[in-house]
## 1
Amino acid sequence: MFKLVVRRWMKQSGAPSIPAYRLESLCEQAQHSDNDQNVTISWGGWTLHLYKNQLWLHCDTEILPCPTVEWPKDSNALDLGHDAGQLILKGRNPVTPTGEFIVGSRANMAETAIRQGSHHKTLKNIFQAADIPPWLRDCVPLCKLDGELVAIGDWCFDDDFASWMSESQIEMSWQPRNPLLQFILTQQHSQVVDPAGAVR
């Protein structure tokens, strides 16, 4: 049944048919893997992932990670490249916060946790709870203010940074261009979020 579903989905997506031996490999890997383990097969310029009971399909063109760049003080928008898109500050007077405001990815930032309430939540735990696949995590923009991680995408914020945005009547919007990144962003926005950005 699983093979039939995959083949039907491939046909609807417009991707070339999966060779029988590749599909058999996917099934075998899935049977012997944990739910949160990334199962992957590639064929004909396409890659299919199975992660947390979801199938992810994309062509083999590399999805570029979010670059490391300082947000200019006189701009309310920041270009992050072809895949990650851009971050935008919205509001009546959308200015960047006072201090060194850096945007980058998990791969090029030393900070691995964000403060919410009396706890620090690790990036790994946040990404896992949000069901963001491992191969897309370096594409999610992370914002660092004076050396502290204050934002993950546009849905998870440090308490003080969330308060600053609320008091300044500013909202942050991430607008990725890659369809897979657009999908994971839609997933996050569909969840209920408290004022500090923690998923309930």
## 2
Amino acid sequence: MRQRPKIIIPVVLFILTVIATTVGGAMQKGINPLFEPLRLTEGLPFSLTLLSILLTHEFGHFFASRRHGIQTTIPYFIPAPPPFITGTFGAVIKSISPVTNRKALLDIAGSGPFAGFVVSVAATIIGLKLSHVIQLRHTVELYRFGSSIIFHVLSYLVLGPTTKQHYIILHPIAVAGWIGFLATSANLLPIGQSDGGHIAYAVFGNRHYPISITILILLIVLGILIWPAYILWAILFTIFGIKHPPLADELVVLDRKRRIIGCLNLAVFILTFMPLPVRFY
């Protein structure tokens, strides 16, 4: 018997996340929410864009699960208070009934990141058209966003060539698209039970575990050499588990369609990964 999804807690969390991301978007524009509460609506473009990306990602999982007859919760958003200007730590969705075979696992895991990636591309293009490029003659930089392959390509196509003497003042919609790319690459890391971990298990089976360990070690090395936040990522992945539970039917072989889905998600990971997401000066 199919259970009716519980909606009260997810709805409350979603409302809190809308508020938190709106405040975060306003803070990105230099608005103090305590002294300028009437200007909080200026944070809505960032909030609505980021939530659209996250919702598309999670409902990609949701509808793929439904196609395979697997019950899931609706998305649970995790609001983040100031000073986290993103306003959210993301969203999660949990399977109520077990995923039985590799085909279903790959379909469900691969649908979310790819759907979120498509919306992130659209948001980034729109946001870049609303952004501004300035010369750094008299401007002091506090930080500069890193650039993935896809963000660099889109910036070039929309804004034209830039040099280190240029600084792109990103519109909040573009910032949301950039965060969408970062979240997508993080989700596709083939560790444990992340989306990338599910995909790796669907493709490689028990060989998933050494892959998971290798990527975890690489994260720690990158954290030491390039960006300390990668160490936090490694810790979180370790807490949530780096092994993948076995499936009820391990004998189902992936067909050509599923291998293409796996390759597409690998391509998305390569396009969205940022070795140094934020550089501070």
